[in-house]
């Protein structure tokens, strides 16, 4: 039997409430952009995930086979395979249950996520085109920025190929929840993993809406000015890291962690576990924006239920109003790129 090693328990203590060690339901996960700043720690954590049986690492970087060789020496049961360059992409994708995409350029100080659109849009379009042909049923988890536009791009490509399933395409916003938990855990002096908070909207600046009124336990701050400061810190936390890295990129380690947790939840849904819930940016009719992030319940076919965002207070309703035009603009830009 596959005994759970302590290191795996530590890695997934945030994400897995009913952690299964059952060997029969295991999955192939493909990482596109696996040799990058996010790709490497993400792949490391996925190598530790007992639900992953095959890890296919794909990147353009010449040293991608080396990253795969390196990870393959870890003494966990999953198989690691490396693929380099577009000729090897179909083999990397074939039969994947989940494709996680952190391929693309990151921000430098002074840039917005939307400034990455021109480079990253074609990367996500071309990767999705290959998924449409070689693994049309795969769950597609998009980390590449700007997430608000990349999910519409992937969706349009799948539509063009006649294989679109809105329940299988996710923008990964988990880092916003991870940060919210951490900051609120610090304020309240509690373990961050005990903090439950939805972050809704999208994944850039004003479109990131932490719903502090629904947070459990409630953040121990009363003054509106402090609530406003915490909200802004969560919205600008990516920029905080970009500035601190001073030109060397954006969040990679906390994103690797967040991406692995998100993937683990998708896999738990695939294996038939019930009540697995994470926030994600998905096709939506919850608001007038065609795509929107809020809590999603996962199942065997991706989204089992969109749980909506519940009650917002007046301050959060105002945040939503401010977010909406930006979100719609980002979505239209993505759709227009493919059409
Ligand atoms: P990075 O430059 O360190 O790594 C990107 C990797 O993608 C590189 O190894 C590169 O070779 C590879 N790549 C480029 N084009 C490719 C292609 N066509 N196919 C396969 N691989 C390709 O960047 P990073 O720090 O890992 O960030 C990656 C992306 O993730 C950026 O767009 C960044 O903005 C985004 N990001 C998103 C979140 C989020 O919360 N969703 C968080 C952090 C970063
Ligand atoms: C983040 O939130 O850290 C990422 O979206 C990367 C960035 O550009 O801020």
Describe this structure in words.
With 339 residues, this protein is an alpha/beta fold. The protein is 41% helix and 17% strand. The protein has helices at residues 6-11, 39-47, 64-72, 89-93, 117-134, 147-160, 174-188, 224-235, 237-245, 253-270, 314-338; strands at residues 27-32, 52-59, 79-84, 98-101, 139-142, 169-171, 199-201, 208-210, 276-283, 291-299, 302-306. A six-stranded parallel beta sheet has the order 3-2-1-4-5-6, with helices on both faces. Strands 9-10-11 form a three-stranded antiparallel beta sheet. Strands 7-8 form a two-stranded antiparallel sheet. A hairpin with a 7-residue loop joins strand 9 (276-283) and strand 10. Helix 5 (117-134) runs parallel beside helix 6 (147-160). Residues 1-22 have low confidence and may be disordered. Bound molecules: nicotinamide-adenine-dinucleotide and (2S)-2-hydroxybutanedioic acid (LMR). Nicotinamide-adenine-dinucleotide is lined by residues 32-33, 35-39, 58-61, 102-107, 116, 120, 123, 143-145, 147, 172, 175, 203, 249-252, 255.
């Amino acid at each position: 039997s596959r005994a759970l090693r302590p290191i795996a328990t530590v890695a997934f203590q945030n994400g897995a409430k009913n952690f299964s060690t059952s060997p029969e339901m295991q999955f192939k996960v493909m990482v596109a952009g696996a040799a990058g700043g996010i790709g490497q720690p993400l792949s490391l954590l996925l190598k530790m995930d007992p639900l992953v049986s095959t890890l296919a690492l794909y990147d353009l970087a010449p040293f991608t086979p080396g990253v795969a060789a390196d990870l393959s020496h870890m003494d966990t049961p999953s198989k690691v395979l490396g693929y380099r360059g577009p000729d090897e992409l179909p083999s990397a994708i074939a039969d994947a249950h989940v494709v996680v995409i952190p391929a693309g350029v990151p921000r430098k100080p002074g840039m917005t996520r939307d400034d990455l659109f021109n480079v990253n849009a074609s990367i996500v379009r071309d990767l999705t085109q290959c998924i449409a042909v070689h693994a049309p049923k795969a769950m597609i988890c998009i980390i590449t920025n700007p997430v608000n536009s990349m999910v519409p791009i992937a969706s349009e490509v799948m539509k063009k190929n006649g294989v679109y399933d809105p329940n299988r395409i996710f923008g990964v916003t988990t880092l916003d929840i991870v940060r919210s938990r951490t900051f609120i855990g610090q304020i309240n002096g509690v373990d961050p993993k005990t903090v439950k908070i939805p972050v809704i909207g999208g994944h850039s600046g004003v479109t990131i809406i932490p719903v502090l009124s629904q947070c459990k336990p409630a953040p121990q701050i009363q003054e509106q000015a402090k609530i406003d400061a915490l909200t802004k810190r969560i919205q600008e936390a990516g920029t905080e890291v970009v500035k601190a890295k001073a030109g060397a990129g954006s969040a990679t380690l906390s994103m690797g962690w967040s991406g692995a947790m998100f993937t683990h939840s998708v896999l738990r849904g695939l294996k038939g576990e019930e009540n697995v819930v994470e926030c994600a940016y998905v096709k939506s009719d919850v608001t007038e924006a065609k795509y929107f992030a809020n809590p999603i319940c996962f199942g065997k076919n991706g989204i089992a239920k969109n749980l909506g965002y519940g009650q917002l207070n007046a301050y959060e309703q105002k945040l939503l109003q401010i977010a909406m035009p930006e979100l719609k603009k980002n979505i239209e830009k993505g759709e227009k790129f493919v059409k």
